[in-house]
Automatic annotation (TrEMBL):
Region (Disordered): 30-59
Keyword Signal: yes
Pfam families: SRR1
Similarity comment text for this entry: Belongs to the SRR1 family.
Protein name in the entry: SRR1-like protein isoform X1
Organism of provenance: Huso huso
Keywords per UniProt: Signal
Signal peptide interval: 1-23
Top-level lineage group: Eukaryota
Species lineage: Eukaryota, Metazoa, Chordata, Craniata, Vertebrata
SRR1-like domain: residues covered: 139-306
InterPro entries recorded: SRR1-like, SRR1L
Length: 344
């Protein structure tokens, strides 16, 4: 029989008392170095829980690019990617169609953000936006990607972004990307991919002037709230397709008072208006990402959100009057202008 002991006093005591002629006596055995690591590795090499700290002063940029390409190649053959591609295309197509209607005859009224999760966007084999919306210029904006040079989760999120740009035929130069924690080496890698790296922290307050895919995986709540505030009109909201944390999940996790005080553009406080008119409408169409054990922690709680025009049109116009810029009373989960995040 063996005991695994780490207390040095007990180890010394048992070593003195150990008897060698009897197979039934207790013996001390030191824990084999690396055994715990081997057990963890045997559970599978999935991309979760592999985030490290800051990268070395002299990073291997070529090696990082190869790891990114490896993640792209892996995702490309996964059923997970195929499902993500179809539902994103479907939601983006809906935004393109409703956005065109909005630009044609709605003007700049507005829309409230009450969420509903529906599978409408995930129809099988939706048409390609590039094929059905010839001449439509699509933009992509990515915030909060993280340190992809040292974090496997961020690397897989970047890989999915690259696949989306390719699938939706969005030129890399029209993918605007920012994270205050990017190192100079990471900026260089993204620029080598052809992306436009923003130099200023917008805190998510970016208006959409054309149909735009916002890619905000696992970002702070304030980033989503700021984005919605900056686009608080029916014309602008109809231009948005947002891939990020589930709005419904945010609503369910926060106390109502915190939601209505700090995150009213995400919250469903406008249901008060709907209740008085018997119009409990869900304005955001939200479709969750497919479940995947391998990519669970990389894309958990992620949904695609779009804003159909027919839902925006049904809202009372007073919902859009003078939207106040968010003023947060709690510690935020984002880095604000002037806070940290210097590049290395």
């Amino acid at each position: 029989m063996y005991l695994y002991l780490s207390n040095p006093v007990l180890l010394l005591l048992l070593a003195v008392l150990k008897m060698t002629g009897n197979a039934g006596e207790w013996q001390t055995v030191r824990k084999r170095r690396g055994a715990g690591k081997a057990r963890r590795q045997s559970q599978g090499p999935g991309p979760s829980r592999q985030c490290g700290g800051l990268q070395d002063e002299a990073p291997d940029s070529q090696g990082i690019k190869e790891r990114i390409q490896g993640a792209v190649d892996e995702l490309r053959t996964a059923e997970f990617w195929d499902a993500c591609k179809k539902l994103t295309r479907g939601c983006l197509m809906e935004s393109l169609v409703t956005g065109a209607e909005e630009a044609g005859d709605m003007g700049a009224s507005g829309g409230a953000v009450v969420t509903s999760t529906e599978p409408d966007c995930a129809s099988p084999d939706p048409p390609s936006p590039a094929a059905d919306c010839a001449g439509v210029a699509l933009d992509c904006v990515c915030y909060g990607l993280g340190r992809f040079s040292s974090c496997a989760s961020s690397r897989y999120q970047l890989a999915l972004l690259l696949l989306l740009l390719e699938s939706l035929q969005i030129p890399a130069s029209r993918c605007y990307i920012y994270d205050p924690m990017f190192s100079n080496a990471e900026v260089g890698i993204l620029e080598d991919f052809g992306m436009t790296v923003l130099t200023e922290n917008e805190e998510g307050k970016r208006p959409a002037h054309r149909p735009t895919l916002f890619y905000l995986i696992h970002c702070g709540k304030a980033l989503y709230n700021n984005l919605l505030w900056k686009n608080w009109s029916s014309r602008s909201l109809s231009q948005l397709t947002v891939i990020g944390n589930s709005f419904r999940g945010i609503e369910e996790r926060l106390l109502t008072r915190d939601l209505q005080r700090d995150y009213k553009y995400i919250s469903d406080e406008s249901q008060q208006v709907f209740n008085s008119r018997a119009q409990m409408l869900g304005v955001v169409r939200e479709v969750p990402f497919p479940d995947s054990p391998r990519y669970l922690e990389v894309f958990n709680d992620t949904s695609v959100h779009c804003f159909p025009t027919e839902r925006l049109r049904a809202l009372p116009p007073e919902l859009w009057d003078s939207p106040a810029e968010p003023d947060y009373q709690e510690d935020l989960e984002i880095i604000r202008v002037g806070e940290g995040g210097q590049r290395r």
